[in-house]
Amino acid sequence: MKIGLIDSGIGLLAAAAAVRGMRGDADLVLASDPETMPWGPRTPQEVAELALGCARAAAAYRPDALIVACNTASVHALPALRAAFEPGLPVIGTVPAIKPAAALHRSVAIWATPATTGSPYQRALIAEFGNGADVTEVPCPGLADAVQSGDAAAVDAAVAAAAALTPAGVGAVVLGCTHYELVAGRIAAAVPGAALFGSADAVAAQALRRIGAAPGGTPGAAPGSVDVVLGGRPAELPAVALGYPEGAVLAGSPATA
What we know:
The protein has 257 residues and is α/β, with parallel strands linked by helices. It folds into 2 domains: 2-94 and 201-251, Rossmann fold, CATH 3.40.50.1860; 98-198, Rossmann fold (3-Layer(aba) Sandwich). It contains 10 helices and 10 strands. It has helices at residues 12-22, 44-59, 71-85, 98-104, 120-129, 143-149, 152-165, 184-190, 200-210, 245-251; strands spanning 2-7, 27-32, 65-68, 91-92, 107-112, 134-139, 172-175, 195-197, 226-230, 233-235. The strands form 2 sheets. The chain has a 6-stranded mixed β-sheet with strand order 4-3-1-2-9-10, with helices on both faces. It has a 4-stranded parallel β-sheet with strand order 6-5-7-8, with helices on both faces. It is globular and about 45 Å long. The two termini are 31 Å apart.
């Protein structure tokens, strides 16, 4: 079994680690294009073209499913990706976890990139899945870039700025960008008492369902392989990825941060 994942950068690590946690024997293909980050400010056509490029690079490894581990790409490129690869290759998008958060909490904050915050897409999700909760949209300028570069001071500054915009006593924080899941601990510390809702586990589970694979796998099976493609070229996991627990898990080494 092989699962491909695409993103602009290392945001795909969260979903990849979730797949590895559910199926340790799954081979993974991680395709990204960090030189073109950030994707948020780009036009929908540009995002679709960049996502298609990453998807073609991943598809060359013949995966059984393809996870679009990027909120921006899921908004702007999912129709093009499905038209290009389905039904032969199931394509699974990423949606902010507004529905489960609003089902359990009456006060919800959605942390997202400035391009996503207030967008028709996010507003439609709130209208459909907000369940009458008091929902606050919180822009997080610079947070994804800080996570991508591994700049701890910049991460802390961006998290603190977003926390200042988050209502006191909020019940839940939805992580509306896959990069944010890599610093969930820092976000939790900045918004004490709030439950965090990411998408990685749900996306990983959906990918397994789409290909009829049950979690768990074969006891004693060898760990799956990890292929990395950066900008369409085979590469190693970027050094910055090893600083996060999710990247370290994939590399089989301890995290450095």
